[in-house]
């Protein structure tokens, strides 16, 4: 699956971008991230135009980057304001600058034609904001696999029953049919699975304090290509939200993943889990962080193995898809359409 260009991607958590350079490759583009003295995030191509020295290995002079090799000096828009040994600055002395936006505790970067950045809306994950009323545990894992495998993985949660048995998986997840809906105008795939009277996995029993069977809803909203949201509701069996939308007995987990290709064969897995229950309980926070990290690492290990398998396999292996793959297949189709549209632009 080709990387979809002309799109916004999560490059980092907001607190990773500081006055010290962060070098990160996003969609095959080596980029240096930093903040101006006023705190605005900046993203520039991480290669000096002179002899390619990485700007991330250079130094800041106020808001400018002074190349660590021969001193070419770059402004925050990528233009060059100084070259050594001559007054005339060559017209082509500039590095690409990428549109960046700080939103919902992420630094988003636009990959593709910068002129299109404003037309593309950045999807929201408001619960990640500190004042949202949610408590968030989060992290990021690099995976040595093509990004489409992480999309497949997240769009089909039936694997929870097997890969994550004992954590978030119970038999009902794989047994319960799901519904899939595609919004091609907004580039969103929705996948829902509502399990009524389900076994409560240990992960939720511990954190919600519910003892007995639960109604467990998983509503996925995949904003292709980068942002994946899983709205998860856990309530005692038979307890429904009120007609006005309030849901005092429901426990809500907003699970956010940002799926950011690093290269064609590697992906950054930004994960965050935000809850609106047991908010003052630090033990639950630590439990959530540890458990979710374990679950994420189970996926990371599986995808690393899969990429190695695909890498070595002879041409022509035919996958077999079944019902549970509906969401994943819809996402693949959408990504293909989007990458073709970007390629044609
Ligand atoms: S490589 Fe940057 S100034 Fe020469
Ligand atoms: Fe998983």
From TrEMBL:
Entry GO MF terms: 2 iron, 2 sulfur cluster binding; dioxygenase activity; metal ion binding; monooxygenase activity; oxidoreductase activity, acting on paired donors, with incorporation or reduction of molecular oxygen
A Pfam family of this chain: VanA_C
List the InterPro entries hit by this protein, alphabetically: Cholesterol_7-desaturase (IPR050584), Rieske_2Fe-2S (IPR017941), Rieske_2Fe-2S_sf (IPR036922), VanA_C_cat (IPR044043)
User: Where do the Rieske domain residues begin and end?
Assistant: 8-109
Give coiled-coil spans as residue ranges.
none
Its keywords, alphabetically, are: 2Fe-2S, Dioxygenase, Iron, Iron-sulfur, Metal-binding, Oxidoreductase
Question: Origin, by domain of life?
Answer: Bacteria
Output the PANTHER family linked to this UniProt entry.
3-KETOSTEROID-9-ALPHA-MONOOXYGENASE, OXYGENASE COMPONENT (PTHR21266:SF60), IRON-SULFUR DOMAIN CONTAINING PROTEIN (PTHR21266)
Q: What is this protein called?
A: Aromatic ring-hydroxylating dioxygenase subunit alpha
Q: Which organism is it from?
A: Actinospica acidithermotolerans
Specify the taxonomic lineage: Bacteria, Bacillati, Actinomycetota, Actinomycetes, Catenulisporales
